[in-house]
Amino acid sequence: MDFGPAFGDNGDMTSRTTTDSPVRRLAAVIVAAGGGTRMGDGLEKQFRNLAGRSVLAHSAAAFLDHTATARVVIVAAAQRRADAISALSDLASDARVVIVDGGARRQDSVAAGLAVASGPAISLVAIHDAARPLLPQRVICDLVAALDAGADAALPVLPVFDTVKRIAGSQVEDTIERTSLGRAQTPQMFHLADLTARHEALAPDTEITDDIRLYEDGLSRIDTVAGDECLMKLTRPADFTILSALLYPEGDPPMPDALPPFDIRTGNGYDVHRFDDGGGPVRLGGVDIAHDRGLAAHSDGDVGLHALCDAIFGALADGDIGSHFPPSDERWKNADSAQFLAFAASRCAEHGAAIMHLDLTLICELPKIGPHRDAMRARIAGLAGIDISRVAVKATTSEQLGFTGRGEGIAAQATATLVMTGPHR
What we know:
Blueprint: E1 26-32, E2 49-50, E3 53-54, H1 55-64, E4 69-76, H2 81-88, E5 97-101, H3 106-114, E6 124-129, H4 137-148, E7 153-159, E8 164-168, E9 171-176, E10 182-184, E11 188-191, H5 192-200, E12 222-226, H6 238-247, E13 264-274, E14 282-284, E15 287-289, H7 303-316, H8 321-324, H9 338-350, E16 353-363, H10 373-384, E17 391-396, H11 402-405, E18 409-420
Parallel strand pairs: 1-4, 1-6, 4-5, 7-12, 16-17
Antiparallel strand pairs: 2-3, 6-11, 7-10, 7-11, 8-9, 13-18, 14-15, 16-18
Helix pairs in contact: 6-10, 7-9
């Protein structure tokens, strides 16, 4: 099976691309209603920050930058509509953007998007996962061309390079021939009227994982185009670091052109929690560390993440952690502080800011931080949507002086460096 090159000839994520026809005839339905349970934490992955912009905004911008796009429908959970608007930032004011409530299943959300996708001259529709934020313009062009050439449906596909085994439990049964296998990606593109009709005819008890399934009847022509490694789906926290590296292969995002002088903001954060009388572990920097006592707090007591949040909020002049997550609110009782840092990073995207560096210092006699330093850095980087090279974690003692020296608790101080790139600078 020939899928073409693994990467497109044009890897540019932002440049505007012309098509054979300048008519705006494409609607994009971006599914952003999922909870992202495999990602963990509280803030859904589509609303998190990736290199200075929310994941959802990256996905929407890819279609808005294409000359064939007439409408972009964002399908979000009803209770997350405000989050979707904030994540889109200035894109939410584009007249082509529509936000609708999603359903219980992916196919229900797609159907909700299709219901508002039609418009004058719109004949094509692309269904895309918001969690695939780095969509090259080349892929959209190839999909449009495939449908113009007579396909009923088209999707980007990558070849399978690894040897594939069939597993039963923990035992290998046999090897699967991989030459006929491919890794399906989105967007998947269809003729709007045809896809709408097939969704309407779908039996209520039938569940599909992607819309191509509706065309696997042996009668429909389904074309594949070359996928792109940049189109990987965000699933695990570490995937944010991987996508940042794909977006900026040289390791550093470009500094904003619009300044100089650059609007660089620095914020400081400090937090302290005492040890409680219960057992451990203690959570620091998003990592659980074996210890005989945990930290007393309304949430999980992660002083490291709390200090980082306040450092980011300080640089944004956006209140503090207590104003966003008040301890009087029972919603945050025993909450995982990872969702607080993910939220703080999303606020950067809303304010037009890029996180350039996070520096955390933990002050305690015990537990020992050194063996867990890199795990903390990786965890923080994933939550903040930045490369691990931009995260520093240090530890020190207070020479047995004060409450930390007596082993009564742990303190943390943090510094966040941001560059303002948007209209708030």
